[in-house]
Amino acid sequence: MGIRDDIFRILKSVDIVVLSSFYEGLSLSSIEGMASGSPFVASDVPGLRDIVEGGGVLFKSKDYINLAMIFHKLLEDRFFINETINNCLMKAESYSLDLCIDNYKYLYLNISK
């Protein structure tokens, strides 16, 4: 897709946001995916696991059967999809700019004591 300035609009238009990486660090795209208001599904790999756990749904990397089962459940189970969306939004909020600034302020103030 190249460089885009409308990623959030695109993410809000999809039924499910998926990040199927084999390796990942601190993934901004996973945070954006969880903040989009769509359910977020990611491969269970180091890096992603820490960000997504408790928010989106994790699947075993390279396990397409497990991924298909998650898709089916998200598309068929309204309670599960709503719960996943709410969990994603709450988890993404923990990475908000305001919260990060507050955490850094707290850290710097306590280091200087």
TrEMBL record:
A GO term, aspect molecular function: glycosyltransferase activity
Superkingdom of origin organism: Bacteria
Keywords: Transferase
PANTHER family: GLYCOSYLTRANSFERASE WBBK-RELATED
Annotated protein name in UniProt: Glycosyltransferase
Organism: Arachidicoccus ginsenosidivorans
Phylogenetic lineage: Bacteria, Pseudomonadati, Bacteroidota, Chitinophagia, Chitinophagales
